[in-house]
# Entry
Amino acid sequence: MKKLSLQIISLLIILFAVLSGCTDYLDTQPYSVDTVDKLYTSEDGAELGLTGCYNLLNAESVQGAWGATFVAVMPFMLNGGTDEVATRDGYTDVKYAPLGNYTYTSQNPSLEDNWFCLFAGVNRANYLLEQIDGVDFEDEDRKEEIRCEAHFLRGFYYFYLSAFYGGVPLFTTSDQSGSEPRSSLENVYGQIISDFTYAYENLPGDSIASTASGRANKWSAAGYLAKVYTYLASCKNNNVGADLNFELNSFDWVDANLMYNEAKTITNDIIENSGLRLTEHYDYLFRETTKSYQKEESLFTLAGSENVSNGNFNLMLFFQIPIGSSSAGGGYGWYRPMGELFYKYHSSDPRRIHNITEVLDTENSVESIDGVNYFIPDTLDDPSSAYYCVGKFRYRDPDEKSISSAWSDGDIVLLRYADILLLNAEARYFTGDEPGAREIISEVRSRIATDENELEMFNNAYYNSDFITELLDSRSRELCFEGWRRIDLIRFGKLGEVVNSLSDDTGKWNTIVPIMQSYWNSNKIWFPIPNSDIELSENLEQNPGYN
# Structure
């Protein structure tokens, strides 16, 4: 890719803020009709257009919608309200707290912003796909790559829209009336599968480790396609949402056997041909400065900018990093882990020591990783501690940073190889190979074991005769706080069961459990369609239970 000036990229961000909508998510026409045409007149313009499609993933603000995607809102939507993490006792911010205790309504401002921004992402991809054919390229292969990346990103934005809200308006062009109704999940997932498949079949197949940070390649598309197939198959098998009797969000159309066979084929392809592997140090997957190790396992990352004065940065300040002094790289702890997660781990499991910690301050010891200093949070021994917090992601010593201590220039791995292995195990089990499925789960555990004897100990300690229970627990231990637990519990029909089985005294922050249980209802597997958008488009039907 040609290097682009920072000034042009800045203008692009402003341009796409205009393109993404005016008063609501359906209003996508630019103020100047020829703005897009002028952008897509050269290779550089097309590259700028693609940058704009990626930019929204961690743009700080889009037309006043602050942090509505992976900067802040989506981590709360994806992680909150489970046996892994819930709202901190006493935390009452109306934008975020309801996402962890099930008190959200159709008037929640975070959901309104999220709906808008995800559709803005869809619209950006649609503009690019409409214009790319008219751009002359010296390298036609690069032109096709841009087209494939746009398909991937449109599928990506719709993947999260459908996981959050169910059936949503389906747009494949920028020509919209503003009154389109919601499409069924069958139609939406048909488009998602089409977009991911196009990217999977046409993007280069080089190892993800050789690609640009934060950009999609063949294996990114393959990984999310496997996510779609396992999601749909498990939702069908477990009759997800059937009690709501809401046709738009029905999974009756899904052929679960077909979906699991597709998932097995694709994950086998990733395992055999991608060049990805389990990176040796689990904790290196979650540090700001260990990008080279993350690439060994990453299928798709949320890239942090390496430019100090202009670029997107990631934000893990609210709950993903240990609480404590900002001078030591500490955060706020707005969400805290549940006691159930602590006890899910064997006491010797190094993932527990890393993922769940106590406080962090400048009096703590420091460890050097490839010459970069990180303060070491206190080890948690008892989840009744007042300082019990998420410790999975780590900021380095702020004195060694050239940006605000609140922000991070590190990458966040959104989809990684360990997850693919666990999806492969799931697909193997549901296609009749339980022994092979258990072997794959053991492979994931092999990273935390010092030798074969310790691996056998973990396998015995974590064994459950109910394979699904063992699978979900294994996914939680490995992937906690990475945005998959809520989706996993929903697709296996277990979110309500888990919420209702929580104890209010297992851990310090389990005091929020009575609120979660009081407001939990089976309709909460879907977030509400924002009321402001329903008022603007009378054809938008609300999800059950939110009228």
